[in-house]
Amino acid sequence: MHLRTWLTTVFALFASLATLTALTSSAQSAQTNELKALDGEWLYVEDRTAGQPLERLGPPMSSTFSLRIEEGAVILNGHGSGHRNVRVALDGSITEVNETNKVTRYRGAWKDGTFAYDVEFLRGPDKVPDGQIHMIRRKFHMTTDGLIVRVAVNPPNAKEQVGLYRHTQDIPLPTPAKAAIGDLSWLAGAWVGKRSSGSSIEERWSPPLGGAMLAMSRTVNTSGKMNAFEYLRIVERDGGLVYIAQPGGAKATEFVLTEMGAEKGSRHAVFDNPRHDYPKRIRYELSAEGVLSATIGYAKGGTPRRFEFKREGN
């Protein structure tokens, strides 16, 4: 081979190699950018499962969870298994979490803009699948509307439940209703009730004064021991009302009054916080018969929790 021909061939090979390297690097960069879009804390917004009955609407997995993107892997937290900082590789290799009489296996992959992983539960001394749930498949795909999460229990024949999640700061806040604290004077008083478990529950609301109403809630079990308490406030702010809850004296969570009305002798008030994991909505209603109900749940659907009270002494 002549020297000139040989050199031409060598240069062509180097050029091809450089082009291939550039294309590979570009593809890896694009994949990394797509993966980075999944990074962070995610909060449930709404159920998007086709044909889902209203009472079954809810998050397909935890209300809040996180994905942390690393080179060649995704780190899981809050995904409902009780495990923290689980590293799921994108090459299909298995990550095992060993516990007493139980092994949990994670296997993940990234394909066509979707991160997916399977969780397999092996139980018993022989470490074989046991129980009704032996595998969960979760898929995460970023859209302009937020993160779409698809979950199937015991695939491949199971129906997928689909949910929309967003970063907290990307969830719109509700429009406040105009109101003054005196509009909730019907809530003032000592209210007592019974839970289905037999525990007693009470809420004691002060009269509206100084732009606020204050309350204390307490739950006492059947053996006479207090097992829950909560500090509550409703305050005037910017022409509306804000409900502030501190269960167990913890950090305050705020809910904005979005609806208030009266109909056929009953009164109601609705407070919303779509940026809270649960509840997202609190509704108080005083019936024409004098029964006060407090309902907490999601903004739409699901099975809300409802508590009923009567005025103390009635």
Describe the structure.
The chain is mostly beta strands and 314 residues long. The chain folds into 2 domains: 131 residues, Beta Barrel (Lipocalin); 131 residues, Lipocalin (Beta Barrel). The protein is 11% helix and 49% strand. The chain contains 1 helix and 20 strands. It has a 10-stranded antiparallel beta sheet with strand order 4-3-2-1-10-9-8-7-6-5. Strands 11-12-13-14-15-16-17-18-19-20 form a 10-stranded antiparallel β-barrel. It starts with a helix and ends with a strand. About 4% of the residues have low confidence.
Helix-strand blueprint:
Blueprint (H helix, E strand, L loop, with lengths): L2 H34 L3 E8 L16 E7 L2 E5 L8 E4 L1 E9 L2 E10 L2 E10 L11 E9 L2 E8 L7 E6 L22 E6 L5 E6 L6 E9 L5 E12 L2 E8 L5 E11 L2 E7 L8 E6 L5 E6 L7 E7 L3
Antiparallel strand pairs: 1-2, 1-10, 2-3, 3-4, 5-6, 6-7, 7-8, 8-9, 9-10, 11-12, 11-20, 12-13, 13-14, 14-15, 15-16, 16-17, 17-18, 18-19, 19-20
Compact summary:
It contains 1 helix and 20 strands.
Distance between the termini: 108 Å
Order of strands in the sheet with most strands:
4-3-2-1-10-9-8-7-6-5
Shape: elongated
Note the quaternary state here.
single chain
Rg, Cα atoms, Å: 27 Å
- Give the domain tally: 2
Q: Give the strand tally.
A: 20
Largest sheet: 10 strands, antiparallel
Number of helix segments?
A: 1
- Which CATH top level class of the largest domain fits? Mainly Beta
- What is the assigned CATH homologous superfamily of the largest domain? Calycin beta-barrel core domain
Quote the average pLDDT. 89
Strand content: over 45%
Helix content: 10-25%
Could you give the order of the helices and strands? HEEEEEEEEEEEEEEEEEEEE
CATH architecture of the largest domain: Beta Barrel
Structural class: mainly beta
* Parts with pLDDT < 50 across at least 5 consecutive residues: 18-28
Task: Fill in the CATH topology of the largest domain.
Answer: Lipocalin
